[in-house]
Amino acid sequence: MRSKEPSELKEIELSPPARRLRADASRNREKLVEIAGIVFAERGGDASLEDIARQAGVGIGTLYRHFPTREHLVEVVYRREVEALCAAADELAQHNAPDIALAEWMQRFVDYIAAKRGMANSLRILFDANSDVFANTAGMVASALRGLVEAAIADGSIRSDIDSADVLHALSGIYSSPDTPDWRDRSRRLVALLMDGLRWGAAKPRS
After folding, report:
1. What one-character DSSP code corresponds to residue 201?
2. Per the database entry, where does the chain bind DNA (predicted)?
3. Which of 167, 161, 165, 176 is nearest to 194 (CA)?
């Protein structure tokens, strides 16, 4: 049996730490994306990459290794926000009555819009650069909402003379609302009012 050369032994000895470093790097990246979504939603255009790195518990150099520019980070965060919102539609539908699932999802839409508003400048840059992020996510939110609306109509818990595209248009209006300190609370009230309108005249009024 051939004995291992010193170089082979060195490779064997270094492999576990190398795997740990890769795992740590992956966790750091995920944490940065998670924290960035929160900070963008809370602080908008004032959110700094330094603050994101600090809250994620890493140095700014680590952030830049994963995301060379602000736009690189925003693209990943935006994609994650869209995917999370769409996944929430399925989760809520599995555990709630159709109208409750729709109402809860619409409230989560406010948080999604808050993050999107916070990334507005970078998203415009990405759009002008013809980033494929918008092509890849186009229709995902509309499809998620359509499923919730159709289920609630079929259940009779919201009125049947509406279209999910109209609901999305109404929801999206909060994006352009004035950026005041109470924007999020005001948006939640408007969404609740919209949901009341959807329930009004339903075949099966919610008790």
Report:
1. T
2. 48-67
3. 167
Q: Which of 42, 68, 94 is the last residue of a domain?
A: 68
pLDDT for 1 equals 47
The C-alpha atoms of residue 140 and residue 86 are separated, in whole angstroms, by 7
Q: Coil, helix or strand for 37?
A: helix
Return the CATH number at 106.
Answer: 1.10.357.10
Residue type, 41: A
pLDDT digits 0-9 by tens, 87-144: 999 999 999 999 999 999 999 999 999 999 888 888 888 888 777 788 778 789 999 9
Q: Which stretch of 74-78, 132-136, 157-161 has the lowest confidence by average pLDDT?
A: 132-136
Q: Nearest CA to 114 among 86, 78, 88?
A: 78
Structural domain tally of the chain? 2
Cα 53 from Cα 9, distance rounded (Å): 37
Q: Domain check: are 176 and 132 in the same one? A: yes
CA–CA gap between residue 205 and residue 159 (Å, rounded): 9
d(CA 149, CA 144): 9
109 with 60, same domain? Answer: no
